[in-house]
Each structure stands twice: as C-alpha cells, then as structure tokens.
Amino acid sequence: MVNEIFAKFHEVATSPRAQMDKYIAEGKKVVLTAPVYTPGEIIHSMGFVPMGAWGGDVQLDKAKEYCPAFLCSIAQSILELGMDGVYDGASALVIPSLCDTLKTLGQNWKYAVKGIPFIPMTYPQNRKPDYGVKFTRAGYERVIKDLEAIGGVFDNAALAESCKIYNKHNEVMRKVDEVIAKHPEVTAVQRSDVFKSAFFMSAEEHTALVEELIAELEKTPAGEADMGIVVSGILTDAPQLNEIFDEMGMHIVADDVAAQSRQYRTDVPCGDDALQAMAEKFKAMDNCSVLYDVEKKRVQLIADTAKARGAKGVVVVMTKFCDPEEFDYPIIKRVCEAAGIPVALVEVDRQMVQFEQIRTNLETFRDMLSM
Ligand code: SF4
C-alpha cells in the first residue's frame, strides 16, 4: 500500500503536464505560480488551480536571447519552457518579486511569452512594520485585480475558506516531514516526490494523499537513520542528486529547502478580514534567504534543526547564480561548524547532466561523517 502511494506521488511529480491537462479537461483554469512565495490561497479562493512553475531540467536556448548567462537556471528555464509552449493552456503566471532575478523574469516573460499573462506580486523588503504589511496587502489587491480580469471572483469568505484548506495542507506537510525523518526506509527520491507533487495537485487532493501516506508509515515502527542529514537550498528535486543521497546511505531527516519545508512553516492567522490575515502571514514569515533579515536567524534554525533531528551533517545544495543563497552560505558554514555539525556544499543547476563531481563530494562527506 505504501509503495502504491509513493508511486502516485512519483507519477504526479514527473508528469505536471498531465496534471494540468486533467484540470483543464475538468473545466478548471490553471494559474502558474513561480518561486518563491506566491499567494496560493488567493488564487485558489478565486476559482483557479494554482500550479507550481519552478522550471525544469531543460537545455537553455531561446531564453538566452532574453537573459544574461548569470541568471539562475530556475528563472531561465521557466522562460524557456514558456517560450517552448510547455505551459500553454495556463491562464496566467504569478511571479513574486523576492529576488532580483525574479524581478527581471516577469518583464522578459511579457515580451517572450504572449499567450500567458504575467501577474506581478510585489512584496516589500521590510515586511514587519505596519507600512510593510500595508504594502503586502496592496500587492495582493493588485493580484486580485489581475485575476478578476481573467475571470476570477474575489470574496472574503471564500478566501477565509481557502486559508483553512492551505493551513491544513501546511500542517500535514510539517507532519510528513517529521514522520519521514523517523522512517529511514523512505528514500530521498520518494521524499522529493512527496514535496514536488504538491506543486501540481490541488491542496485538497495533496492533503488527502499525504494523510494516507502518514497513516501507512505510522503503522510500521519508527527507526533511526545511520546517517541523517539536513538538506538546505532553493531546489533539490534533481533525480540524480536524490539517487546519490540514497546511494550514500544518507537519510534526509529535515530540510530547509525553499521548494519544500519553507513553503509550509507559516500559517495564515485567524481573523475576519482574510486578506489582512494573508498580509499578516507574510509579516510572520522568516528563516529564508529571500526574506530580508539582518540577524539571519535562518542560519541558527538550520543548526538547531540538525541537532534536534540527530543529523550528522548539513548538505547545502546551491543553485548556481542564486545570490540570496550564496550570501548566506558562509554564515551557515561558520555557525553549523561552531556547533559541531559538518557542512558540505554541492552546486546544481537545471541543465546539469553530469553529477560525478557531486557524487565525489558526497562520498568524501559520507566518509568524514562515518569516522
Ligand atoms: S534560485 Fe535564487 S536567484 Fe533564482 S529565482 Fe530563486 S531566489 Fe532568485
């Protein structure tokens, strides 16, 4: 039974286009959501199916006409896939403004991909003060206006309902992370599928499937990984990377990955004004390289999580040319090593076909952790 559930996650994670076609055939409209924090609750409440667009493992060709070589491959591959028609049929693409690369992506998209409107979500740098919350709310109001232009209908009560659905999804994702940590038989590939499939299923459907998985896993006794690791980065979905973790006997006991647990850490608070509650949620969010924080509390969280979950080391999976992550890496290394937690760094991008250097790095790291 558990293998059937993992097979379902794998099928969805590896065939997003089939999922999109399914929703469109059901008469639903799909709105693409780019990294890192798009307001899925708003999109969902207005009658659309939000679907993650974090690029894909493709060679870059047409996108090079628009992007300098030093833009990260996630942004470039989103543009490439858009120009290739891979997202055709989607009603819009929402791009948040949380890093400089994402700011340029929307402008390029407008000219390069004509059939799918670009909706900007402009977040404030200072999200905590009242003026930051007002700014966030104004950004959401702009998104709502653009979604209304493509047939969406906004209603405060519907948004409150969607927030509950998303909070429930957050809760099960946090729970499945905890449960998998105690089940070393779950592979890194399987764990990646559980998280990646969340981008391509409705929150309700994904919640139900994750609940089934948790129930099945909890029927078997918990175990302890010989070599638990914490993985940190923006994206860690490359199958070859996860296969190497499995080959090395490394079990992911927690992650600080933008496409994984960072999405599910913060719930929308209760309140009569659901849109205000959404803005308050963004104010409350923390511990991410793209969320401004002079104290870099994220770094301590990584070290504390590694200790709490009994991890032997931290693997930082660096997306090449990702400035926000590159700035944080030296601090992560310093703080974790001071806490007695070894750190390894591997670099990835969406065009990578050769993973031998990563294999060698992780082999050495495994040997170090085994000593
Ligand atoms: S990987 Fe880094 S540079 Fe690229 S879009 Fe994400 S945060 Fe921005």
What's the quick description here?
This protein is α/β, with parallel strands linked by helices.
What structural keywords apply?
single chain, 371 residues, alpha/beta, 4-stranded parallel beta sheet, 14 helices, 8 strands, 51% helix, binds iron/sulfur cluster
Main sheet summary: 4 strands, parallel
Tell me the radius of gyration.
Answer: 20 Å
Distance between the termini: 37 Å
How much of the sequence is in beta strands?
5-15%
Mean pLDDT comes to 96
Q: Provide the spatial order of strands within the biggest beta sheet.
A: 2-1-3-4
Which regions have little confidence, pLDDT < 50, spanning 5+ residues? none
Task: Count helical runs.
Answer: 14
- In total, the number of strands is 8
* Proportion of helical residues: 40-55%
Q: How would you classify the quaternary structure?
A: single chain
Ions, cofactors and other bound molecules: iron/sulfur cluster
Question: Would you kindly provide a written description of the structure presented here, covering whatever features stand out?
Answer:
It contains 14 helices and eight strands. The model has no long low-confidence stretch (mean pLDDT 96). The chain is an alpha/beta fold and 371 residues long. The site of iron/sulfur cluster has 15 residues, from helix 4, helix 5 and helix 13.
